[in-house]
Amino acid sequence: MRSSSAGLRPSAPSCSSGTGPGTSTPSMTGSSTSPATASRPSSSGSRRSGSGYTRASSPAASSPPSASPPDLPPAAGFAGFPSLKTLQFDKVAIPDHGGKQLAVLIARSSSIERVELTRVELIGDDPEAKDEWVIRAPSLRELTIASCFPYGGRVEELPQLQKGVLVGCNYAKFLMGMAQITELEFACSLDWWAEVDVLDQLPFLFENLRSLVISVDFTEMFAILSFFCLLRSAPVLEELIVCGWSHGSQVVTADDKFLNAQCVDGMFSKLHVVRMKNVLCFYNEMHFVEFILSKARVLQVLSVRLGPDALCSNEVAVIAIKEYPKASPDAQIIFLVALSIRPLRMLRWERYRQQAESMTLSTHLLRMLRWKRYIQKMASVALSLHPLRMMRRKRHRQQAAGGRLSKCPLKILRWMRYRQQTASMNPSIRPLRMLRLKRHRQQAVGW
User: Fold this and answer.
1) Could you tell me how far CA 58 lies from the centroid of its own chain?
2) CB-based contact 200:173 (threshold 8 Å)
3) For 351-370, what is the mean pLDDT?
4) Is the model's pLDDT at 168 over the cut of 90?
5) Which residue, of 3, 110, 199, 201, has the greatest Cβ tally within 10 A?
6) Which bin fits 144, alpha (ψ -120 to 50), beta or left (φ > 0)?
7) Which CATH number fits the domain that encloses residue 350?
């Protein structure tokens, strides 16, 4: 595998903590340049359930180096990595039909449990060819795909998958093999219109999905439709985290009639917690908050955090949301204020000051003593270096003029050094040093 230096294009923000792509090199060393043989698509007609999201950790296995060209098939007898548990690629470009090579690597790692693909470019991969390569991993429990590159291929049914994250473009098709997941994070960049049909035609319900983290642009109708497609497919959803974002102004309106048309029976029957992050206070966004409060009968907590670019102040949003009718009598509305960088620095300074005030007097004196020693040391270094630099400069000037260096400046330099040393000496040692200094001065005068 070769590292790719291409940067990411702007995409939808991620709501969860720790799902953002990192900047490390691939933790899987070596190269696996073998293209996979053409695999036949497997039917997935059985009803599947669940949904999931997670991040994978760093792996530890490495493939043996191969001297053959990257477009040649793997060496005969290559059995993969049967003990590999975690595979993590970050900012990597896989050349020559990279999707096939990746599928072969995962398929031949029979014990793999976690796969994380962050900013991985599959060179030569056709995004329109769904059956060009297939991910098969019966023991896989966590799958993360976060990138700005469109991928081809598909994911076969993963019976052990519990957590998954899909952040990027045209990744909704990978949900076809994630029916058993319990946690899911889903975010699309700008191509929501292409994902609506895929999400609306899911042949199953996520019957195990308990937590959903999703980024939604409430100014785009396709994003709202895709959002409700996932909500209708999760009948047992308990926690919903919505991160709002937008690159423009609102051009469509999602009123009560539209929202009621998207709702089905039992849609929020088990929804307990809703967290709205980066709320920009668009009409559609505030209307969705009102819709949730009026439909979720067992809702316990609704937290709202305004974004830095919100159209209204926190006080106005609080007044508006508190007036919305609530279907659950136990629902608590919590308003969170986002901390900017400056208050965060002030908070750190306040903590440091509190720690300093709680110190004992001995600790304060010890720090002051160390600081005083440091200042004295720096002052002595500056005094000693200054004459030495002058001496070197004079030598250089004399050598340039073709003359010889006399010994008198050298004696003066030594005398200045002795004077600096005697100033910091014990009084009992000082007379002896002064005597030696006097002798050196007499010798210097004799020169």
Assistant:
1) 14
2) no
3) 65
4) no
5) 199
6) beta
7) 3.80.10
